[in-house]
Amino acid sequence: MVSRRSSLRLAAGALALAVVLVIAYVAICLYAAATLSTTGAHQPLTASAGSIGVNWEDVSFPSRSDRITLRGWLFHSSLRNGRSAILLHGFTANRTDQGFDEPAMTRAFIAAGYDTLVFDFRSFGLSDGKGFTLGWTEGRDVLGAYDYMRSRGYDPHRMAVLGVSMGAESMLGAAEQLSDVAALIADSAYANLRPILDLDITRYSGLPGFFNPGIILAGQLFYELNPDFRPVDHVRALPQRAFLFLVGAIDTFIPTANSYELKAASTNPATRLVVFDGSKHAKEFQNHTTLYLSTVFGFIDQQIAATGT
User: Fold this and answer.
1) pLDDT tens-digit map of 150-187
2) Which domain holds residue 206?
3) Rounded CA gap, 264 and 259, in Å?
4) What is the domain count for the chain?
5) Among candidate residues 81, 80, 77, 79, the one with its CA nearest the CA of residue 107
6) 100 and 136 in one domain?
């Protein structure tokens, strides 16, 4: 029969082990949250402005609300037709690598007559910031870019905003405050962040799924992460707004079903979803350049015409 003293020792040992395990769990979650929140941050630029366009400016401006300094390039088209565009890069990228062969995309917009702004989201490229939230706080960066373009005299009724992956979700989250922008285009966006976090935390950290709740909580407490961020709700809140959704048919990084969900949330008959055969995540432009550009520019033409400008 186990003595009372032995029982107490066993209980104390079990309690000590439990405390050690809890501390280890918390430490791992904190470390993983810190690592994941800065993955790919401040990657160096891989192209010069001069290799993309002839007439350009180095620009900087604050994000809306929290006033983080963002840096980018504003390219001027020789056509000077009054149109403008803001291109938004994806996760672990920057203004020179947006996930859709950004220099080529920027060149295409410039050649088509758009003065084009490309910039680095917070914590990417040369912009300030120490962490990111996969679209939640980055919406403030989109609005900062929009405010900057307005301050330069660009007419939002002749403006397009195109985002890829994280850039697309950031734009959708800010869409209610971009009501005057003629065309909003989302390439490879998720509809709901939480299932993407569950998928990607395991993918990037290599940790078992039972660490996910702790990592997400640490992200909420220390990095402004909002796991309940749902771009689909922002689409649903704008029944008058037409969107263009673009996605690869074999996107497994953000499953293609997300774009179908976003399309279904819009009741505007002018909203379109275009699925590109054989394309993985954010590779539609690279794989189907002509179709991609004709789709994008056709949608923008339609939306600018609808504004009567």
Assistant:
1) 999 999 999 999 999 999 999 999 999 999 999 999 99
2) 1-36+193-227
3) 9
4) 2
5) 77
6) yes
